[in-house]
Predict the structure.
Amino acid sequence: MSHAVIIPIYYENKSTIHLCNDLQDLGAEYIVVVNDGLDPHSEYFNELTSIGCHLVHLKNNNGKGASLKAGIRYAHDNLYNITGYITCDADGQHTANDVMKISRMLDLRNGSLILGKRDYKKSKMPLNIRIGNRLSSAYFKVITGKSCSDTQTGLRGIPAFLYDTVMKTKGNRFDFEMNFLTKCADMRVPFYFVNIIADYSNNTQSNFRLVKDTYLIYRTPLRFATASIGCTIIDLVLFTVFAYILPSHMFFNIILATLMARVVSGGINFLINRKVIFGNTDNGAKQALRFFILFFCIMCASSLIVSALWFLPIPVTLTKAIVDLLLWTVNYKMQRIWVFKDSNRLKRTPRNKRK
Protein backbone atom coordinates (compact mmCIF):
# COMPACT_ATOMS: atom_id res chain seq x y z
CA MET A 1 0.00 0.00 0.00
CA SER A 2 1.17 3.60 -0.58
CA HIS A 3 0.14 4.77 2.86
CA ALA A 4 2.39 5.52 5.81
CA VAL A 5 1.25 4.16 9.18
CA ILE A 6 2.21 6.68 11.86
CA ILE A 7 2.60 5.26 15.39
CA PRO A 8 3.61 7.64 18.20
CA ILE A 9 5.03 6.02 21.33
CA TYR A 10 5.75 7.49 24.76
CA TYR A 11 6.74 4.29 26.60
CA GLU A 12 8.19 0.94 25.59
CA ASN A 13 5.37 -1.47 24.87
CA LYS A 14 5.70 -4.90 23.29
CA SER A 15 2.24 -4.40 21.77
CA THR A 16 3.81 -1.92 19.33
CA ILE A 17 6.32 -4.52 18.13
CA HIS A 18 3.56 -7.13 17.69
CA LEU A 19 1.48 -4.60 15.76
CA CYS A 20 4.37 -3.69 13.45
CA ASN A 21 5.11 -7.37 12.79
CA ASP A 22 1.45 -8.01 11.93
CA LEU A 23 1.35 -4.97 9.66
CA GLN A 24 4.42 -6.19 7.79
CA ASP A 25 2.80 -9.60 7.33
CA LEU A 26 -0.33 -7.95 5.91
CA GLY A 27 1.64 -5.90 3.38
CA ALA A 28 2.13 -2.51 5.03
CA GLU A 29 4.98 -0.91 3.12
CA TYR A 30 5.75 2.07 5.31
CA ILE A 31 5.58 2.11 9.12
CA VAL A 32 6.81 5.26 10.87
CA VAL A 33 7.32 4.99 14.63
CA VAL A 34 7.75 8.31 16.43
CA ASN A 35 9.74 8.17 19.67
CA ASP A 36 8.26 10.86 21.90
CA GLY A 37 11.16 11.46 24.30
CA LEU A 38 12.47 7.94 25.07
CA ASP A 39 16.14 6.90 24.93
CA PRO A 40 16.86 6.43 21.20
CA HIS A 41 19.66 3.97 21.98
CA SER A 42 17.33 1.49 23.66
CA GLU A 43 17.28 -2.10 22.38
CA TYR A 44 13.55 -1.58 21.90
CA PHE A 45 14.20 0.70 18.92
CA ASN A 46 16.79 -1.67 17.48
CA GLU A 47 14.07 -4.31 17.39
CA LEU A 48 11.69 -1.95 15.60
CA THR A 49 14.42 -1.09 13.09
CA SER A 50 15.03 -4.79 12.41
CA ILE A 51 11.36 -5.18 11.56
CA GLY A 52 11.74 -2.47 8.93
CA CYS A 53 10.16 0.49 10.71
CA HIS A 54 11.24 4.05 10.02
CA LEU A 55 12.12 5.82 13.28
CA VAL A 56 11.69 9.46 14.16
CA HIS A 57 13.19 10.54 17.49
CA LEU A 58 11.98 13.59 19.41
CA LYS A 59 14.33 14.86 22.09
CA ASN A 60 11.65 15.52 24.69
CA ASN A 61 8.12 14.40 25.41
CA ASN A 62 6.25 16.80 23.12
CA GLY A 63 2.81 15.18 23.15
CA LYS A 64 0.69 13.10 20.81
CA GLY A 65 -0.12 15.93 18.40
CA ALA A 66 3.53 16.90 17.97
CA SER A 67 4.45 13.23 17.43
CA LEU A 68 1.78 12.72 14.77
CA LYS A 69 2.87 15.85 12.90
CA ALA A 70 6.53 14.81 13.11
CA GLY A 71 5.73 11.36 11.71
CA ILE A 72 3.55 12.70 8.90
CA ARG A 73 6.19 15.30 8.03
CA TYR A 74 8.85 12.57 7.86
CA ALA A 75 6.68 10.42 5.58
CA HIS A 76 5.89 13.37 3.32
CA ASP A 77 9.54 14.40 2.99
CA ASN A 78 11.27 11.01 2.85
CA LEU A 79 8.96 8.30 1.55
CA TYR A 80 8.06 7.83 -2.09
CA ASN A 81 4.61 8.28 -3.60
CA ILE A 82 2.69 8.54 -0.31
CA THR A 83 -1.03 8.98 -0.95
CA GLY A 84 -2.20 8.98 2.64
CA TYR A 85 -1.30 8.69 6.30
CA ILE A 86 -2.83 6.35 8.87
CA THR A 87 -2.49 7.36 12.50
CA CYS A 88 -2.54 4.51 14.99
CA ASP A 89 -2.15 4.21 18.77
CA ALA A 90 0.78 2.23 20.15
CA ASP A 91 -0.83 0.71 23.24
CA GLY A 92 -2.27 -2.37 21.54
CA GLN A 93 -5.67 -0.76 21.20
CA HIS A 94 -5.74 -1.13 17.40
CA THR A 95 -5.25 -4.30 15.40
CA ALA A 96 -3.33 -4.66 12.16
CA ASN A 97 -6.51 -5.89 10.43
CA ASP A 98 -8.34 -2.70 11.36
CA VAL A 99 -5.42 -0.59 10.17
CA MET A 100 -5.57 -2.35 6.80
CA LYS A 101 -9.34 -1.75 6.65
CA ILE A 102 -8.63 1.96 7.02
CA SER A 103 -5.97 1.69 4.31
CA ARG A 104 -8.29 0.02 1.82
CA MET A 105 -11.01 2.59 2.44
CA LEU A 106 -8.48 5.40 2.07
CA ASP A 107 -7.79 4.09 -1.45
CA LEU A 108 -11.49 3.83 -2.29
CA ARG A 109 -12.43 7.23 -0.82
CA ASN A 110 -9.29 9.32 -1.23
CA GLY A 111 -11.25 12.57 -0.93
CA SER A 112 -12.54 11.69 2.54
CA LEU A 113 -11.15 11.60 6.05
CA ILE A 114 -11.45 7.99 7.21
CA LEU A 115 -12.26 7.48 10.89
CA GLY A 116 -12.17 4.22 12.81
CA LYS A 117 -15.46 4.10 14.70
CA ARG A 118 -15.09 2.05 17.86
CA ASP A 119 -17.81 -0.42 18.80
CA TYR A 120 -18.64 0.44 22.42
CA LYS A 121 -19.83 -3.02 23.45
CA LYS A 122 -17.41 -5.23 21.54
CA SER A 123 -14.48 -3.01 22.47
CA LYS A 124 -15.46 -3.13 26.16
CA MET A 125 -14.74 0.57 26.30
CA PRO A 126 -14.28 1.91 29.84
CA LEU A 127 -17.17 4.04 31.07
CA ASN A 128 -15.11 7.21 31.47
CA ILE A 129 -13.87 6.99 27.87
CA ARG A 130 -17.39 6.29 26.62
CA ILE A 131 -18.85 9.28 28.46
CA GLY A 132 -15.99 11.52 27.33
CA ASN A 133 -16.53 10.52 23.71
CA ARG A 134 -20.28 11.19 23.93
CA LEU A 135 -19.69 14.66 25.34
CA SER A 136 -16.96 15.36 22.80
CA SER A 137 -19.24 14.32 19.90
CA ALA A 138 -22.04 16.56 21.21
CA TYR A 139 -19.63 19.50 21.51
CA PHE A 140 -18.35 18.87 17.99
CA LYS A 141 -21.91 18.85 16.62
CA VAL A 142 -22.66 22.19 18.29
CA ILE A 143 -19.60 24.06 17.05
CA THR A 144 -19.41 22.62 13.52
CA GLY A 145 -22.94 21.44 12.74
CA LYS A 146 -21.41 18.15 11.58
CA SER A 147 -22.05 14.76 13.17
CA CYS A 148 -19.07 12.66 14.25
CA SER A 149 -19.88 9.67 16.42
CA ASP A 150 -16.25 9.05 17.45
CA THR A 151 -14.28 12.27 17.71
CA GLN A 152 -11.62 10.72 19.94
CA THR A 153 -10.63 7.76 17.80
CA GLY A 154 -6.88 7.48 17.28
CA LEU A 155 -7.20 5.33 14.15
CA ARG A 156 -7.61 7.70 11.22
CA GLY A 157 -6.89 7.67 7.50
CA ILE A 158 -5.72 11.08 6.31
CA PRO A 159 -5.49 11.61 2.53
CA ALA A 160 -2.32 13.29 1.27
CA PHE A 161 -4.08 16.47 0.16
CA LEU A 162 -4.67 17.28 3.84
CA TYR A 163 -0.94 17.35 4.61
CA ASP A 164 -0.78 21.16 4.81
CA THR A 165 -3.88 21.20 7.00
CA VAL A 166 -2.20 18.77 9.41
CA MET A 167 0.92 20.91 9.60
CA LYS A 168 -1.05 24.12 10.21
CA THR A 169 -3.34 22.67 12.86
CA LYS A 170 -2.62 24.05 16.32
CA GLY A 171 -2.00 21.79 19.30
CA ASN A 172 0.82 19.46 20.30
CA ARG A 173 -1.05 17.14 22.64
CA PHE A 174 -4.50 15.54 22.53
CA ASP A 175 -6.05 18.85 21.50
CA PHE A 176 -4.49 18.42 18.05
CA GLU A 177 -6.91 15.64 17.10
CA MET A 178 -10.01 17.70 17.91
CA ASN A 179 -8.57 20.80 16.25
CA PHE A 180 -7.80 18.83 13.11
CA LEU A 181 -11.30 17.34 12.98
CA THR A 182 -12.75 20.83 13.36
CA LYS A 183 -10.61 22.17 10.50
CA CYS A 184 -11.72 19.31 8.26
CA ALA A 185 -15.36 19.99 9.11
CA ASP A 186 -14.88 23.68 8.29
CA MET A 187 -13.32 22.69 4.95
CA ARG A 188 -16.29 20.39 4.33
CA VAL A 189 -14.09 17.34 3.97
CA PRO A 190 -16.40 14.28 4.01
CA PHE A 191 -16.04 11.90 6.97
CA TYR A 192 -16.28 8.18 6.32
CA PHE A 193 -16.55 5.79 9.25
CA VAL A 194 -15.12 2.28 9.41
CA ASN A 195 -16.28 0.02 12.24
CA ILE A 196 -13.39 -1.22 14.37
CA ILE A 197 -12.93 -3.04 17.67
CA ALA A 198 -10.50 -1.44 20.12
CA ASP A 199 -8.67 -3.51 22.74
CA TYR A 200 -8.26 -1.78 26.11
CA SER A 201 -6.88 -4.78 28.01
CA ASN A 202 -3.27 -3.56 27.67
CA ASN A 203 -4.05 0.10 28.17
CA THR A 204 -2.43 0.35 31.60
CA GLN A 205 -0.57 3.59 30.96
CA SER A 206 -1.92 6.82 29.59
CA ASN A 207 -0.26 10.04 28.56
CA PHE A 208 -3.58 11.87 28.95
CA ARG A 209 -3.55 14.54 31.68
CA LEU A 210 -7.17 14.74 32.77
CA VAL A 211 -7.34 18.40 33.76
CA LYS A 212 -4.69 19.95 31.52
CA ASP A 213 -5.53 18.04 28.33
CA THR A 214 -9.28 18.43 28.82
CA TYR A 215 -8.68 22.16 29.13
CA LEU A 216 -6.55 22.17 25.96
CA ILE A 217 -9.23 20.33 23.97
CA TYR A 218 -11.98 22.74 25.02
CA ARG A 219 -9.73 25.76 25.52
CA THR A 220 -11.34 28.03 22.92
CA PRO A 221 -14.98 27.75 24.09
CA LEU A 222 -13.87 27.95 27.74
CA ARG A 223 -11.92 31.14 27.08
CA PHE A 224 -14.81 32.48 25.03
CA ALA A 225 -17.21 31.83 27.91
CA THR A 226 -14.83 33.44 30.41
CA ALA A 227 -14.44 36.52 28.19
CA SER A 228 -18.23 36.73 27.76
CA ILE A 229 -18.80 36.61 31.52
CA GLY A 230 -16.06 39.15 32.14
CA CYS A 231 -17.44 41.57 29.57
CA THR A 232 -20.94 41.15 31.01
CA ILE A 233 -19.59 42.26 34.38
CA ILE A 234 -17.84 45.21 32.72
CA ASP A 235 -21.11 46.10 30.99
CA LEU A 236 -22.99 46.15 34.31
CA VAL A 237 -20.30 48.21 36.04
CA LEU A 238 -20.15 50.74 33.20
CA PHE A 239 -23.94 50.99 33.06
CA THR A 240 -24.00 51.80 36.77
CA VAL A 241 -21.28 54.44 36.39
CA PHE A 242 -22.84 56.07 33.31
CA ALA A 243 -26.31 56.04 34.84
CA TYR A 244 -24.88 57.81 37.89
CA ILE A 245 -22.85 60.49 36.11
CA LEU A 246 -25.36 61.34 33.38
CA PRO A 247 -27.86 64.07 34.32
CA SER A 248 -30.87 62.40 35.88
CA HIS A 249 -33.28 64.79 34.21
CA MET A 250 -32.34 63.48 30.75
CA PHE A 251 -35.24 61.61 29.20
CA PHE A 252 -32.95 59.04 27.61
CA ASN A 253 -30.66 58.66 30.64
CA ILE A 254 -31.10 54.88 31.01
CA ILE A 255 -31.10 54.21 27.27
CA LEU A 256 -27.93 56.24 26.76
CA ALA A 257 -26.18 54.60 29.72
CA THR A 258 -27.13 51.17 28.37
CA LEU A 259 -25.90 52.01 24.88
CA MET A 260 -22.60 53.50 26.04
CA ALA A 261 -21.86 50.58 28.38
CA ARG A 262 -22.75 48.04 25.71
CA VAL A 263 -20.54 49.70 23.07
CA VAL A 264 -17.51 49.88 25.39
CA SER A 265 -17.90 46.32 26.72
CA GLY A 266 -18.54 45.07 23.19
CA GLY A 267 -15.36 46.73 21.96
CA ILE A 268 -13.36 45.12 24.75
CA ASN A 269 -14.96 41.77 23.98
CA PHE A 270 -14.04 42.14 20.30
CA LEU A 271 -10.39 42.84 21.06
CA ILE A 272 -10.14 39.90 23.48
CA ASN A 273 -11.82 37.48 21.05
CA ARG A 274 -9.72 38.69 18.12
CA LYS A 275 -6.31 38.55 19.76
CA VAL A 276 -6.67 35.99 22.55
CA ILE A 277 -9.55 33.62 21.88
CA PHE A 278 -9.39 33.03 18.12
CA GLY A 279 -5.95 34.52 17.47
CA ASN A 280 -6.91 35.85 14.04
CA THR A 281 -5.80 39.40 13.21
CA ASP A 282 -6.28 39.27 9.42
CA ASN A 283 -8.46 42.32 8.73
CA GLY A 284 -9.49 44.32 11.77
CA ALA A 285 -12.01 46.57 10.03
CA LYS A 286 -13.87 43.70 8.37
CA GLN A 287 -13.84 41.64 11.56
CA ALA A 288 -15.10 44.60 13.61
CA LEU A 289 -17.97 45.18 11.18
CA ARG A 290 -18.97 41.52 11.29
CA PHE A 291 -18.62 41.42 15.07
CA PHE A 292 -20.96 44.35 15.67
CA ILE A 293 -23.47 43.10 13.07
CA LEU A 294 -23.57 39.80 14.94
CA PHE A 295 -23.57 41.62 18.28
CA PHE A 296 -26.64 43.66 17.21
CA CYS A 297 -28.46 40.63 15.79
CA ILE A 298 -27.91 38.56 18.94
CA MET A 299 -29.11 41.43 21.11
CA CYS A 300 -32.25 41.90 18.99
CA ALA A 301 -32.90 38.16 18.84
CA SER A 302 -32.70 37.90 22.62
CA SER A 303 -35.17 40.75 23.11
CA LEU A 304 -37.64 39.46 20.52
CA ILE A 305 -37.58 35.82 21.65
CA VAL A 306 -37.91 36.65 25.35
CA SER A 307 -40.77 39.02 24.53
CA ALA A 308 -42.47 36.35 22.43
CA LEU A 309 -42.25 33.85 25.31
CA TRP A 310 -43.71 36.14 27.96
CA PHE A 311 -46.79 33.88 28.31
CA LEU A 312 -44.78 30.91 29.68
CA PRO A 313 -45.57 30.14 33.33
CA ILE A 314 -41.96 30.67 34.45
CA PRO A 315 -40.08 33.77 35.65
CA VAL A 316 -39.02 35.98 32.77
CA THR A 317 -35.45 36.01 34.15
CA LEU A 318 -35.26 32.23 33.75
CA THR A 319 -36.65 32.50 30.21
CA LYS A 320 -34.01 35.08 29.33
CA ALA A 321 -31.24 32.95 30.86
CA ILE A 322 -32.24 29.93 28.75
CA VAL A 323 -32.61 31.99 25.57
CA ASP A 324 -29.27 33.73 26.11
CA LEU A 325 -27.54 30.40 26.73
CA LEU A 326 -28.84 29.03 23.42
CA LEU A 327 -27.89 32.24 21.64
CA TRP A 328 -24.43 32.03 23.23
CA THR A 329 -23.74 28.82 21.29
CA VAL A 330 -24.92 30.53 18.09
CA ASN A 331 -22.73 33.53 18.89
CA TYR A 332 -19.67 31.35 19.50
CA LYS A 333 -20.18 29.35 16.31
CA MET A 334 -20.73 32.45 14.16
CA GLN A 335 -17.66 34.17 15.56
CA ARG A 336 -15.56 31.09 14.87
CA ILE A 337 -16.72 30.45 11.30
CA TRP A 338 -17.65 33.99 10.14
CA VAL A 339 -16.32 36.89 12.21
CA PHE A 340 -12.85 35.48 12.85
CA LYS A 341 -12.73 32.85 10.13
CA ASP A 342 -9.34 31.86 8.75
CA SER A 343 -8.91 33.66 5.44
CA ASN A 344 -6.06 31.29 4.62
CA ARG A 345 -8.25 28.22 4.96
CA LEU A 346 -7.14 25.64 2.42
CA LYS A 347 -9.42 24.59 -0.36
CA ARG A 348 -10.32 20.95 -0.45
CA THR A 349 -8.36 19.96 -3.52
CA PRO A 350 -7.48 16.26 -3.44
CA ARG A 351 -4.22 15.20 -4.96
CA ASN A 352 -3.24 11.61 -5.28
CA LYS A 353 0.46 12.03 -5.93
CA ARG A 354 3.17 14.28 -4.69
CA LYS A 355 4.58 16.69 -7.20
Observations:
- Strands lie at 3-9, 30-36, 54-58, 84-87, 113-118, 156-159, 191-196.
- Residues 349-355 have pLDDT under 50 and may be disordered.
- The chain has twelve helices and seven strands.
